[in-house]
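I hope you will forgive my troubling you with a question about protein structure. Could you please explain, in whatever detail you think fit, how the structure tokens follow from the sequence? Thank you for your consideration; the sequence and its tokens are set out here.
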Amino acid sequence: MSEKIIECVPNFSEGRDISIIKKITDAIESVEGIKLLDVDPGRATNRTVVTFVGSPESVVEASFRAVKTASEVIDMSKHYGEHPRMGATDVCPLVPVSGISMDETVEYARKLAERIGSELSIPVYCYENAAYINNRRNLANCREGEYEGLKNKLVDPDWKPDHGPAIFNPRTGATAVGARDFLVAYNINLNTTSTRRANSVAFDVRERGRVKREGNTLNGKIVRDKDGNPVMIPGKLKEVKAIGWFIEEYGIAQISMNLTNITVTPVHIAFDEVSRSAESRGMRVTGSELVGLIPLKAMLDAGRYFLRKQKRSTGVADSELIKIAVKSMGLDELSVFKPEEKIIEYRIKDRKKKKLVSLSLESFMNETASESVAPGGGSISAYMGVLGAALGSMVANISSHKRCWDDRWEEFSEWAEKGKIIQIELLKLVDEDTDAFNMIMKAFGMPKSSEEEKAERKEAIEKATKNAIMVPFKVMQTAYKAYELIEQMVKEGNPNSVTDAGVGALAVRSCIKGAYMNVCVNTDGLLDKKFGEDIKAKAAELNVQSEKVEKQIVEKVLEKL
């Protein structure tokens, strides 16, 4: 079970005074175990979006401290800005990231809402998945009337807060606390200054759409249903909220979008649909910007999408996919797009932990050659497998781009993607092999004074030894998958690169043979003999089969020379 991690993305009604924003973020960072990922102030909107992650308990505590501090340093009676808002802490959503379900996240959100209401006397509405009442699921409903209409709203029995007093506090306003899926705040830039024309595009694409009018004319009478509510013409994109606005800071109009479920409508689809709508109305999209963070997968999917449109191979490095996504959607038009700051997985990554795969080739070589016993043959075996699979992907990528082979680009792209998956799996195993060795050393270093300590040490050594067997065995299994790719590239790939594929086969063979030796050496000291013998037998069979396949591939290479 992975560690439980929740993300919180509170929006505070202050985007201009850095000292005020700093007090709020200091309160967040005062909680142990919290990692502040992003602080994104907007001058025109006078609003700051903050993103942080941690364990559920630490996130709830940090959120509470942030709301409390915001209520002390922000005066809503003096606030104005372009973005809809109703409180000093306008919204405070919790988002499950890993190891935790939405239902569990809802429980934490409601606990937070109850505490804000009871301890800070701030009216709180629970929205999205945390909503108690169905018509409060939509944040727009909770915030309707905004701060200016809040005083009258609070006396309406239908809008009694879920937590806290139904009393208007002009300084703090009200807060919405929710539990939701990962939301991407995404703005698309237009070559116009007209808010009205930007809104026309927003109405085209957002799920809610636009009000239906008789004759479908701008001046036509609004069509209403039997209850008197306006009939809406749905927009083209599901799970999308959007409005048009003018940003004085940039001198342009934007489509401001919330993509509430990027598995339904990803950023690249939103970008293309807005581009089509804008063009049909005589405007042009010039670029876009991300507010806050985005999952890595969303950027990789976007990169693949735009490469496919170019009929180019998608089996390239993540960094290349991200670069294509940034350039295709103009994410660097208004400011430099830094993946290490905008992609959530990169921000969470512990950069202090030294990893072999992060070293340069020279540093890796020097680390291997040093007097330390790790990294050793296991990690090097895994890395040889990485290079073998990489050569297979290289031939596939070259073949997909070969002149006169344009009709085969997708075939080779799929092979390159398969190779990339193998590379990523083996790359992780480079470090896992060294970690497995260190785990054994740690177990042997455990105290053994008492009988209880001896038993614990014995159990730890056995567990670590089994892990040290399974890591190289997994290297063998993973690397073996690369033969299919390499063999196909020898047969069908660019003939000018056939020797590259052959070298890939040799590298994979060395990887599997080296990993096999590591399986054998670790099974000797295992107490669970049956476990050791079973894995060793499977590894031996895989090693023999590897020799046969590698020999066949090399013979085919030599035949073509």
